[in-house]
Structures are given as C-alpha cells and as structure tokens.
Amino acid sequence: MMPAAVQPLRVALGNAPRARAVKSAAQPPGASPIDFADIVPIHRAFAPMVRELRFDLCELAIATFLQAKAFGKPLVLLPVAVMARFQESALLCRGDDATIAGPADLVGKRVGVRAYSQTTGVWLRGELADEYGVAADSIRWVTFENAHVAEYADPPWAERARPGQDMLAMLREGELDAAIGGSEPPDDPSLRTVFSDPDAAASRFQARHGFMPVNHLLVARQSLVEAEPERVAAFCEALVGDGDALPSGRAALDPAIGLVSRYCLEQGLLPRPLSLAEVWEGLPPQLLSLSRSVRR
C-alpha cells in the first residue's frame, strides 16, 4: 500500500521580517508542504483562527490568544515572537491640543482604538496605569471593531463609534482627544505623539521591565500539536531568525507574557486570571528552550 500523502500545513503569517524569511525560503520547514494563506493585514486572520480553527498555524496577537485561552479555545501558544515593538509612538493627539501635555492628561478624555482588545492598546493602557496612574476606566475608549474572540464583550467604559466613522478623521475633527494607531504612524503634521519623547519613554519601559513588548506570537491548533509535535517544532525552528532581536523560547518570553496577562486582567479583558503554566499548556517539550541555536 502506498503511504498517504502528507497534507500541507495551512499557515497564516503576516509580513514581519521573521515571517517573510520563512515564506520566501527555498525549502519549506522540515521539508513539510506549506499552504500559506494570503491575508493582509494579518489581523484579519485572528478571528477565523480563534473562532473556527481555520489554520494549522497562525500568527496571533498575544491579547487575542490570552482571551482565547481563558474562553477554552483548543490552541497552543508556541514560544516564537513574530512581531514586537515599543508602543509609545502609536498614541497620537492633535498637535494644537494644549490640554494634552503628556499621558497623565488623558484622564477623562475620549481615546480611539481599533478594538478595545487590540494588543497595542493593552500595552499602552498598562503603561499609562503603571507609570502615570491613569487607570483604564478613567478614559472613555471609543472602538471600531469587536474583539476577535466572540465570547468577549467590551467593558462599560468603552463605546462603539458610529458605523462608517474613521478614527483618524474623528481625531482631526475633535471628536476624539487621542487615538492609538498601528505600527506605521500617519504622515500627518497636524498630529503629534502624546508622549513628548516616545524614544525616552520606550527606554524607561525597557529599563523597568527588561524587554520590548511582544505583540504577535505563533499559535497552533491543539490537535496538530498532539498529533505531529515534530512537524510543529520544525516550523518554529525555521521561524526563529538569525541575528534578530525577537525573543524565542519560553524562558525568554515569560516576563512579557506575565506582564501582558496582568494588564489584560486589570483592563477587563479576561474573565479570570491565567497562570503562566496555563498559558503554555500543551507546549511540546522539545520547544521549551527554543532558541536561534537550534535553527537547522
């Protein structure tokens, strides 16, 4: 009898450097056939992954994974960061708004964010609370999308913008006092960062915590990890970049995961606390100490 053909792994990855390297490799990880989903921007893959398990492996925002874990989704977090960045330059206000001299002035303001559960917003709200005493519920958050995890409902201090409204247009027109953008700040001279010196604020964050905030990691369907752990490990090893600064391995990621888990709980994103042991539940033993040294 002829052996059954190996089914391609269905994978959703964005275009961050680590992802690009794997997607453009001449040979697929572990010589395993890969079917890369064409999804741009990558956050559009998050809801299908947590709601339908549409992919075998998927880049996923850490806040989305933590919510999925808390609501019992059969996913396994893999210890490979796909995207990380300091968040301070994403928090914007109008350049002529004299009422906002810095982050502490956001108390009582209306701040836009794509979704309340967006990971950039989670990191920024945590920093606002820890460093400036600005609690999440002291700001009126204006959202434009639902969370990727269907079971989650926004807290009472968040409201939904009217259909068809644009966040940056609302900011420019004064309907919002500030807004959280994405990885590429808009080229708009009428806007400025709420942090007067985002680089200095980022340096303070790193000095206090010892890491750069992680936004996206890799996750897998639990059934795939249980059935084919070596195949999953081979893909993870291929994704670990040579010479980049992104963390890999559970020990390297634990500090960031622990802090963002606390932030999610404090901000009303989780129905209950999650321990690190629960966050990493199902991780194959061969991936516990994943690092660049294991790349083949």
Q: Using only CA atoms, what is the Rg?
A: 20 Å
In order across it, which strands form the biggest sheet? 8-7-6-9-5-10
CATH superfamily of the largest domain: Periplasmic binding protein-like II
Structural class: alpha/beta
- H-E string: EHEHEHEEEHEEHEEHEHHHH
Q: Short description, anyone?
A:
This protein has helices at residues 17-23, 46-52, 62-70, 119-132, 167-172, 198-209, 222-227, 229-239, 250-266, 276-279; strands at residues 9-12, 34-36, 57-61, 75-84, 91-94, 110-113, 140-143, 158-160, 178-180, 191-193, 214-221.
How would you describe this protein?
This protein has helices at residues 17-23, 46-52, 62-70, 119-132, 167-172, 198-209, 222-227, 229-239, 250-266, 276-279; strands spanning 9-12, 34-36, 57-61, 75-84, 91-94, 110-113, 140-143, 158-160, 178-180, 191-193, 214-221. The model is unreliable at 292-296 (pLDDT under 50). It has two domains: 9-84 and 213-294, Periplasmic binding protein-like II (D-Maltodextrin-Binding Protein, domain 2, 3-Layer(aba) Sandwich), CATH 3.40.190.10; 88-209, D-Maltodextrin-Binding Protein, domain 2 (3-Layer(aba) Sandwich). The chain has ten helices and eleven strands. Helix 4 (119-132) links the parallel strand 6 and strand 7 (140-143).
List keywords for this structure.
D-Maltodextrin-Binding Protein, domain 2; 10 helices; 17% strand; 31% helix; five-stranded mixed sheet; disordered C terminus; 11 strands
Task: Give the helix/strand layout.
Layout (H helix, E strand, L loop, with lengths): L8 E4 L4 H7 L10 E3 L9 H7 L4 E5 H9 L4 E10 L6 E4 L15 E4 L5 H14 L7 E4 L14 E3 L6 H6 L5 E3 L10 E3 L4 H12 L4 E8 H6 L1 H11 L10 H17 L9 H4 L17
Parallel strand pairs: 1-2, 1-3, 6-7, 6-9, 7-8
Antiparallel strand pairs: 3-11, 4-11, 5-9, 5-10
Helix pairs in contact: 4-9
